[in-house]
Amino acid sequence: MKSAQRPDNEYARQKSLESMGILTSKADPELDRITRVAQRIFGSEIVAISLLDNDRQFFKSNINQPTTETPRDISFCGHVINDDVPFIVEDATSDQRFTDNPLVTGVPHVRAYAGVPLTNPDGFKIGALCVVDSVARTFSAEDIQILEDLGHWAETTIAIRYGARSPQQVLDDLEPAKHRMLIDPLTGIWNKTGIVEFLHRELINARLQNTPLAIYRFEIDQFDKLEQNYGDETAENIIQAISAAITSSLRDRDVVGHIDGSDFACLMPTVREEQTSFLGFKLCDTVREQCRFYDADGNPTRITISVGATWAPPVAKQHFTANQILGVAQEALGSAKSQGIENVVYKALNIPAT
Questions:
Q1: Ranges for the GGDEF domain (predicted)?
Q2: CATH dotted code for 10-161
Q3: Rounded to whole angstroms, how far apart are CA atoms 303 and 240?
Q4: Could you tell me the CATH superfamily of domain 167-346?
Q5: Which pTM was predicted?
Q6: H or E element, residue 306
Q7: Per-residue pLDDT tens over the stretch 2-19
């Protein structure tokens, strides 16, 4: 048996696959519709949409596949993602790569296999659409064209459905280990890693739907002074209060994250460029109006933030990474802080002229 080689970009491919949330989401009726159509057309015993995850092949949709996953090193689909063309095996018993493969010698007794790679919006091959039979068969040029067309349907479905989920839906689907990796324990909102992954996802979605995106970095004004005057516990309470106030004021599709210390980030999809600065001032208003603290003598303590903003058009993904865009917003925040407190500064991305 010859196991498929891992792609040269395996680490980045795996990270991109994980960021989609498709591995932990529930069964998808649209993908199930595609596998049903494929079975009707090909009359194959098994039809599946598989995802190649670390050491397993996970079946996101399948018909008559006896298990929900198999080891990746014995998978046929592992070979598919190494090329841009369909992968065809007409008789596995006469193919040296598969003659002693457990999927051939045992259940489901694979003989004929045809699979096409599925590419996600990041450009990584994440899995395959395949048809499988327990008897040898040939696949005509028309058969292969039909399978490729169905594969494109699956790719489009994956791009739309797994780029359009709300932050809460993504949060609900997180496995415990991923939750610990992406969620800030103090505030319960996204941490820096989570914000970077979400921005990456939103940039892809913006390109697919031809919509823009506003990006903000904001920081609590004079936070060191607040810590000195009121102590660490009160400072943490202030961070939690700001997190709750901003989160409750946002739309379901917006994302807020606690980066570190007194530093936050916010992503607002579909915002027009001319709205960007105005919404930055709305963030300031929310904190000033909703986050009120009192000292031991009952005197009110004014809590404010400064905001740095930038705006990404639909083509931004072609020119900037998520970290670079957050960096531009951070530069704008630095300018805002240099002007005093409760300021908003907008800095445009330098998109090359086309």
A1: 211-349
A2: 3.30.450.40
A3: 13
A4: Reverse transcriptase/Diguanylate cyclase domain (3.30.70.270)
A5: 0.69
A6: strand 305-312
A7: 889 999 999 989 988 887
